[in-house]
Amino acid sequence: xxxxxxxxxxxxxxxxxxxxxxxxxxxxxxxxxxxxxxxxxxxxxxxxxxxxxxxxxxxxxxxxxxxxxxxxxxxxxxxxxxxxxxxxxxxxxxxxxxxxxxxxxxxxxxxxxxxxxxxxxxxxxxxxxxxxxxxxxxxxxxxxxxxxxxxxxxxxxxxxxxxxxxxxxxxxxxxxxxxxxxxxxxxxxxxxxxxxxxxxxxxxxxxxxxxxxxxxxxxxxxxxxxxxxxxxxxxxxxxxxxxxxxxxxxxxxxxxxxxxxxxxxxxxxxxxx
Length: 273
Prior knowledge:
mainly alpha; 2 domains; elongated
């Protein structure tokens, strides 16, 4: 899933029926999923034709809703399904099967779409700009998005602006701190305010890559991106890693006991013990 440039030629509109239609909803979701990895006017034209055919076959009265990024389209469609009465389990199963994305990704798209209904989305800013502001209070969301639009801030520039507020001790009021994955219930919220931070040295290329990941995921900088990568790796390899850690600790204990025995043999107590 890519965030395309906000080019007027790349707009597409989704037909929204007057009343919720389950089959039409699934077909529309499928049409978006079939084209969201393609880019350019030709791909958008192909998508429009498919959506129009879906609407025509269904024979429904619809209105248009225009989009420039598929993230908003996915989020709104998931909200439509939820509002249309699709049960949570069915919604999850349908969405994962039709789009091919994990539910965690789709749930995030739905959450951002709910946080920013169409009336609060800023033209000229990307979905990622809105993701960065999502944890903030509504007042600060609107203020920062307005500033980003007026000053033409990139996603990274907006991220740095928010991050700098935290580093200077003037943290912006939030509804909840930025959501990061956790390891067994431990969630490091406010990474930039840790009392005993650890400094990691890395190549410039690695730092740039982490910043790109942060931009794509809506994190506030390379540190959060790195934490996300670590936790995702832990979750996917937990059993193997726990076994390796246990083996390492057992071997270390065995070596320590052996060394203690060697010391005792070389320097016995006065009474000969």
